[in-house]
Amino acid sequence: MPDGVAIIGVGFTSLQPSTPHLSFKELMFEAAQKAYLDAGVQASEIDSFVTCAEDLNEGLSIFDEYTPDQLGAVQKPMHTLTQDGLHGIADALMQIRSGIAELVVVEAHSKASNVKTPEWLLDYALDPIYNRPLGFNPHAVAGLEMNVFLHETGIRAEHCAQVAAKNRRNALRNPVAAYPLALTPMHVESSPYVAYPLREAEIAERADGCVVVVLANEARTQRSHSKAAWICGVGFANDSATLESRDWVRAEYIRIAAERAYRQASIQNPREIRLFEVDDTYAYKELQHLIALGLYSEGAEAGRSLEAGETKPDGKIPVNVSGGALGMGLSLEASGLYRVVELVLQLRGQASARQLADVRLGLAQSWRGVPTTSGAVVILGTEQPK
Amino acid sequence: MSARKVAVVGAGMTKFMHRALETPKELAWLAAKSALDSAVMNLSQIDCVVLGTAPDAFDGVHMKGEYLSDGCGGWKKPYLRCYVGGGTGVYAVAQAWFHVASGLFDTALVVCEEKMSSCLPHPQAAFLTIFDHITEQPLKPNLLWIFALEQTRYMETYGIALEDIARVSVKNKRNALDHPAAQLGANLTIKDILASEVMAWPVHRLMVSPTSDGAVAVVLAGEEIARRLSDRPVWIQGVGWCLDTAYWTNRDLAYPEYVEKAAWTAYRMAGIREPRKEINIAEPYDPFAYKELHHLEGLQLAPKGQAPKLLADGVFERNGDLPVTPSGGLLGVGNPIAAAGLMKICELFWQLRGEAGPRQVPGKPERGVAQAWGDLMQVGTVVVMGTKEPA
Amino acid sequence: MKLQPEPKLVRGTPLDEKTLKRGKTFSVTYEPRLRYSWDTGQAISRYLAELKEGRLIARSCRKCGRVMIPPRMFCERCFRPTDEWVYVKDTGKIFTFSLCYVSWDVRRLKQPEIPAVIEIDGASPGMGILHVVKKIAPGKVRIGMAVRAVWKAKAKRIGSVTDITYWQPIKN
């Protein structure tokens, strides 16, 4: 049995639509100080650091140039992953298992408010030869996917509206969330179309924030005073890069990632997991991702499950108790890490008004957004996997 | 720690060109395919793909790691892109090393790609965006500034003559004449180098590697698989990487401490106590001529300020006591940023297997070190490879 | 066994500038429309505000005793918040310099730009900032040379590092 790896500390800033008084370095310093205090470690003890960031989200090239100082990583091993924070967790786990590090820090943040041309930025991610010249709003990629997804699964538009309403309402009990709102499905269904059948109220709005996570090997975790959240399984994968050759109905990248994570965690039935924090950048994605995670045997079941309230906080499989991206705000590469924060708080019994009973296993899942098919899955638990 | 042993079992690369007809995906594909072919493997035997590529600003695509994923073989597979500026090409091997050493994956394909020529009016202009957006960019700095500032400091601190620096260009461009992928192989003299125009004193044109397009790939495998796949796997004996402060103007640039730290991490892992004696070949990062010397000192292969003398004495020639950059390096083969670092790893792979043909260093080299550098004079990434299995 | 030299096969089709300019190959051009408005935060906002007033300001850390410029709210060595604002002089010494004959967008310059790292008087040793030097013959610049900031007229200062137009040698 491979050595255990656990999260022994998390530090985070609350998500806000904008953070004009703090530079990204100052946001990172705040989250790092909180994380190291939570973990009971000194910055000088940390062996390796991982930042999850994209140059063009920051507006600076070779962004890792600007990350070491505020994390206490000067003249230490540090690298960037241009991936979501959950890939960073996988990276840290692999470093620890390889024996090259005992304590690894993963950081990701969002200063999305500083990007004044977000749609042009997304446009810049489209294929320059086959897609960009068509000049469509990049959200259309999600619209295209949502349309065929609903068509093939029999899930209805009103289900997606219910997801948006659920998550915005869940955010009311999350002090970290940027967009809490007592929204009803009817409100969602009357918001304008951005890219049919995708409505404006179904698109997560961006927010600024930073999360720092401290991971430790087994020995170091045993010596730690904080309640450990053990990493039971981790997986990440890509499907096709091109729009033209991808699966438009199934989130294959999550099916593959989840398979790996479940196998490592020795989980036969996903319903053994107490809560799910899944990507809902667009409301329909929550359902698509839940299907890919194997929670339902067929698509239509996802709609029925939602209708029956199964994915509400008091339901059988609470999904996005944190409020998700719709409720908390979309935080670029930090998105997955905010989900990890929710899981850690729940596992520790520190989730206050959102606390569920009997939390022993939680799953966080991320997706990197349009036009990617990149995602990751992390399963955390109160006990080391056997 | 008994980490699982990992070896390189295959390597391949494209030509390095000033401008390629091929798209970034096609460049990645050509390199990836050629590495797989060299290992006699197909993509289904690859468990994960690691991409290394430097600023998105060049290829002209945001999230270019995602864009390149299919060209690299990252389809329906675990895939990620790692990034430390120019250090990426060697760092990507360290990244893939721990993918496999951790036990999570048995085989890994590492691809490094760069297509700089897409950027208009000139890729060099894109480097403006690596400088601090508030405290430096308003001054309209040029990438050349930072190298020239460092070279001045290095020369002044150790009393190094420009001729000594020019000698690196001579050696590397000449070595590159024997490299089939080389963009810049040439037979030049010190005089030729110094006669080339001054770009940013004390840097002359022929001391700078120009922008390039190209891709390189290697295949890594865990020990049992490596032994099965290859009769001569080259073992990764040590890895190290180190990032210094963003405040580069608060540091003395004369000596790269971050290279030293990365090197010792790798050397310690490899059980090396006296690098100068125990390393048989070195491929340090040479985007500018003086950098090779600077890095050799950081790598502990020459005392501080002494690398120029050892070079002048012939120690670093292919048939010298410690061959340095037998490939021809960035100055001779070319500098498609991330791909250039991985090209150095490939060179060690081929040299240690006796397959480097006209570039082959004599004797039977058993152990080599490859190093890349990047950012604002900040990051050192080091990999030690050898014919002997790690203990 | 004779080993074939590696790499055996290297592919790639070099494309020369002439072929490209004559439009003999297909290409797609795109100009990215990316605009950012960066929050300068506590440390740098003050730095810029002081520049507008014609002053340079630094931050100090009580633990290691360093006086740091550009200022920062955290000491990266001690990993703790920095403690005080400290005004420093607008004079300094050249730590390193270059004579650059190529602009950032690759145009050849007749008169070289003289970028330099300038150690600021009043800050800790080795604390430099990047800037440009003027009013000196390129061949006369030396490491260690004393220089002074030349400021824009007050009305023209906007709170930018370019409120100092350049640095020039101190004549004594």
User: Helicity level of chain B, as a percent range?
Assistant: 25-40%
SSE succession of chain B: EHEHHEHEHHHHEEEHEHHEHHHHEE
| Gap from first CA to last CA of chain B | 11 Å
| Mean pLDDT figure of chain B | 96
**What structural class results from the helix and strand content of chain B?**
alpha/beta
Shape of chain C: extended
- Low-confidence segments of chain C: none
- Quaternary structure type: heterotrimer
Helical content of chain C, roughly?
A: under 10%
Overview of this structure, please?
The complex is a heterotrimer of chains A (386), B (391) and C (172). With 386 residues, chain A is of the alpha/beta class. Chain A has helices spanning 24-39, 55-58, 85-98, 118-123, 139-153, 157-170, 185-189, 218-222, 252-264, 283-292, 299-307, 324-328, 335-348, and strands spanning 5-12, 48-52, 78-81, 103-110, 193-195, 198-199, 209-217, 229-238, 275-277, 361-367, 374-381. Chain A contains 13 helices and eleven strands. In chain A, strand 2, helix 2 and strand 3 (78-81) form a beta-alpha-beta unit. Chain A is globular and about 50 Å long. The N and C termini of chain A lie close together (7 Å). The model of chain A has no long low-confidence stretch (mean pLDDT 97). Chain B has 391 residues and is of the alpha/beta class. Chain B has one domain (6-120, 210-386): Thiolase/Chalcone synthase (Peroxisomal Thiolase, Chain A, domain 1), CATH 3.40.47.10. A nine-stranded mixed sheet of chain B has the order 3-2-4-7-1-8-11-10-9. The longest helix of chain B has 16 residues, at 24-39. The model of chain B has no long low-confidence stretch (mean pLDDT 96). Chain C starts with 16 loop residues before the first helix and ends with a strand. Chain C contains two helices and twelve strands, in the order H-H-E-E-E-E-E-E-E-E-E-E-E-E. Chain C has a five-stranded antiparallel sheet with strand order 10-9-6-11-12, with no helix packed on it. A three-stranded antiparallel sheet of chain C has the order 2-1-5, covered by helices on one side. Chain C has 172 residues and is mainly β. The longest helix of chain C is centred in the N-terminal third of the chain and has 12 residues, at 41-52. Classes of the chains: A alpha/beta (386), B alpha/beta (391), C mainly beta (172). Chains in contact: A-B, A-C, B-C. At the B-C interface, strand 1, helix 1, helix 6 and strand 5 of B face helix 2, strand 6, strand 7, strand 9 and strand 10 of C. Strand 3 of chain A pairs antiparallel with strand 3 of chain B.
